[in-house]
Amino acid sequence: MPRVVEAANPEAIGLGDLVEILETERFDARDEACFASFGPALANLAANQDFLADIIVSELKHRCRGQSVHNAYGPQVVMLHGGGNFLLRANFWPAESDPILQENGPEAFFYHKPHDHNFSFLTVGYMGPGYWSDYYEYDYDTCVGAVGDAVDLRFVERSRLSPGKVLLYRAHRDIHAQLPADALSVSLNIMERAPHIGYRDQYGFDVSNGVISGNLTETAIEPLLAICSQIGGEEARDLVEAYAGYHPSERIQFAALTALASTCPSIDARIELFARAARRTAPFVARMAARQCAAIEASRHWITRTAH
Predict the structure, then answer these.
(1) What's the pLDDT score for residue 308?
(2) Taking the model in full, what pTM does it have?
(3) Contact 11/147 with Cβ under 8 angstroms?
(4) What's the CA gap between 77 and 90, in Å, rounded?
(5) Separation of alpha carbons 32 and 13, rounded Å
(6) Deepest in the core among 64, 147, 221, 246, taking most CB within 10 A?
């Protein structure tokens, strides 16, 4: 369950006031107590019922130029500010009866998709009754992270992000399955911003079976490694091999191994590459490489037949 941050008797402040607080005071998203200390300031911004409408009106007047430049998210999000090590944003949560949800489906708003986060963030209910969540916790350090791996998911509760309620979602610990709000709602976030976040793993979960259902982290590196291995020369192969052997993210290491395997001249060479990787001490690489060996062996007859 995300940490509840007490924020009694909030007093309305402007967006610029919150930005100044974050930029002038010590802000360290890796320090839970430090991050939580900004909860009351976020609640104070949420007490300002005019600032977000003013921003939206301004964006519409200027054909959303600001959002087009600075918003890397979808239309569910309005970017409010991007600092050096934090982001401020507003999120919209439609109800099940809202036409936008019926037309686009719940998956467009990440409803009914249990997941954790590879970053910490503060959130507060701003407008409407708030979205619901089924909350779970788990021990990230005990997970290898392969799809299908069992995870000890501990259900905590179902609750709603009601107006003024402040929560700190803790990276790699809190899991939630978001459920549609009873009426259109808005939340405000202070989010951790750091270049290494893209290399942290974020998981989807099958809570019914207690397993990891997918890795939700996406970077541009994986497809570039695949292309590099196919069309590059010796220098490109050396680079991909370096990623496979030394990149700090095991997910990227395995992506590089997969790229190298795609250039192997034979099935046996591909199996040998993954077999060596399966003997590594890196648990995710070893687990996934062993699975690849088994999958190739199981498909050997089909692969051989279609190759001819």
Answers:
(1) 52
(2) 0.86
(3) no
(4) 6
(5) 24
(6) 221
